[in-house]
Write a structure and sequence with these properties.
single chain, globular, 10% helix, 4-stranded antiparallel beta sheet, 9 strands, 168 residues, Immunoglobulin-like, 5-stranded antiparallel beta sheet, mainly beta
Length: 168
């Protein structure tokens, strides 16, 4: 007979592992490792998390250096929801001049779970520093950090970060 402590540890480990599979939304075409629908029935609420941004159109974030400002002009749907979202971003330098035709990166990540998503957002440059971002796939409930990377002249990137609560 096993002692109680190891059984409790195994039960806790199994519960933690199942939390990362909580996905009842359909996957976008192409699927991926996180595409399968599973519902554990556990509701996630993170609206009062201090990290979470309140979505409004034209939500602006500056990079830590102040050299870049990223504005989330709109999200479709707005606010971002569980599943596939489309964003319009406007990128400017610290003085407010548009940064056009940059090779942006957009990276969704769940900091509390330590994982991202297998669906890579697609960025299309437009005029005057505007960018359309398709497939912002936030596939499960919880806090999502979406980092926008803007290449710098020195070969690195400057970043701005948005945090959203995806309820479920």
């Amino acid at each position: 007979m096993w002692p109680r402590r190891p059984l409790a540890c195994l039960a806790a480990l199994a519960l933690a592992a199942s939390a990362c599979g909580d996905d009842t939304s359909p996957a976008p075409s192409g699927g991926g490792a996180d595409a399968g629908p599973v519902d554990t029935g556990v509701a996630v609420t993170c609206q009062n998390d201090g990290r979470v941004d309140t979505y409004v159109a034209n939500l602006a974030k500056a990079s830590p250096s102040g050299a870049v400002k990223v504005t989330l002009v709109s999200s479709d749907p707005g606010p971002p929801v569980r599943g596939t979202n489309a964003w319009v971003l406007k990128i400017t330098d610290g003085a407010g001049a548009p940064i056009s035709n940059a090779a942006l990166t957009v990276t969704p990540f769940m900091p509390d779970h330590g994982h991202g998503t297998s669906v890579k957002p697609t960025v299309t440059a437009g005029a005057d520093g505007r960018y359309d971002v398709a497939n912002v796939y936030l596939f499960m409930p919880g806090v999502w950090r979406v980092t926008v990377g803007v290449p710098t002249a020195a070969g690195g990137s400057d970043t701005a970060t948005f945090f959203f609560c995806i309820a479920g």
